[in-house]
Amino acid sequence: MIKGYVGNEMFEKALDLFEQIDIELDDVTYTIAFNACAKLCNDRAMKIGKRLLAKMPENYRNHNITSTSAIDMLMKFGDVESAERIFRPIEAKGTTIYGALMNGYNLNGESWKCFKVFEEMKEKDITPDEIAWNILIGACSKSGILHHCEYIVNQIPLNIQNKIRIENALVDMWGKCGSIEKAKNVFDLVVDRDTITYNAMINAFALNGMGTQAVELYREMPINLRDHVSQICVLNACSHAGLLHEARTIFNEISLKTESIITTMVDCLSRLFMFDEAQ
Length: 279
Known about the structure:
PPR repeats lie at residues 94-128, 194-224. The protein has 279 residues and is mainly alpha-helical.
């Protein structure tokens, strides 16, 4: 029943059941509970999650799956220290649990710790999977330090580098660390580009003051792939490059103007001192 609630994203109902039952939980049920608390991430979820963790039998703490869900939950609560305390004593750590720890560091603004975790994985001869590489690329994006990016990318196996999710993350990473040529090289190699691929490249142009190129790519992007993120990215690019005519044209073409899109257009007009139009 609890698994059904969580599977259908009825997390509050799952927690209601946890509060009603008074039986000894097994490792699977603890895992489901931690996942529900991580998804909700409100005061009630934090109280229940931490209470369940405190009473969880010690032998379950060596279960990679249960401990991974506990670490994920604690990281989403912003409790990095408790997550680290769960992680340290685990004897046979797998790729997934390392991934949960690194993802938590990214979520909590401590991306630099991911590189230490990666070195530990190498020492223990644990090979990152696609998800772990994606998290490491995310850490590089957040650090924005070019040599970190180069160091990590040089170690990603080619069969992983060719995965669309990794390619998209690399475009984003190179754009954020100012290496627009490398971002474009990866973009050009993507065979089956999706919305995220285009958005990452448009944003890379925007971040590096290349508004005209961002607009050109937005125009090349298939209309069915465009979403509100594409529109925000290209309007941001226009804003930073002073491309008022292009911004107006694109804004007027957008049928569903979300609050974020309107805010971005107002920012663009304000930067160009068009205060009356912005109002």
